[in-house]
Design a protein that fits this description.
This protein has 247 residues and is α/β, with parallel strands linked by helices. It has nine helices and eight strands. It is elongated and about 55 Å long. The model has no long low-confidence stretch (mean pLDDT 91).
Amino acid sequence: MLAAYERATAALAKAQNVLVLTGAGISAASDVPTFRDAQTGLWAKYRAEDLATPEAFARDPNLVWQWYQWRRQLVREAQPNAGHYALASLAQAKAVSLVTQNVDDLHQRGGSPDVIAVHGALFDNHCLNGHAYQAETDGLESPPECAQCGALVRPGVVWFGESLPEHALQRADSAVRMAELALVVGTSSLVWPAAGFAESAAARGIPVIEVNPQATPFSPQATYHVRGLAEQVLPALIGTALESPTT
């Protein structure tokens, strides 16, 4: 295990263009519940999968909007953890493209400058016709109407049954093609098409480091496996790599 960790550190130290892929695991230490965690309080009787759909919003827009307002408040109270800050320090030393499945803003708040949020952003809003909505929505119990077209405004996240944003996909594909190394952190590798970015990186033959407490469906394709929590592994792994004379 130690030898594998040392080889992973050496590979990260050598690479100058790094692709980082993150999932919900990196935000767990910030007390951000994963999407499929059991709901609590007033939301205990609902499943997330039954609320995060276009059909649910069409059926009861106030209910879906209030659920997202609750989720936004949870994320507002959260703070970036050591894993987020470690990735920001990596971006200060190397060219880093960070592709995340997370809709929280903890990578940005932690200092990472180039974040590609393929599942959208929790604090963004746009109307059902796609117009961006910039006005303040904090405290609203029902979705406002778009000033341009009058359609209801919804959270700027990707719901079940929707395609990923084309511009985010293009940026992520470009990052995969340019990378000399991929760092896959805290993702179950079960959510597609986002899980395909790691597979595409491995298919290119570049080193791929998987940081996760347990094995995932992607693990057989990874070059190096570092078992552990992101907030514990990343500061040590990245810190050692940046101190290496080969950086």
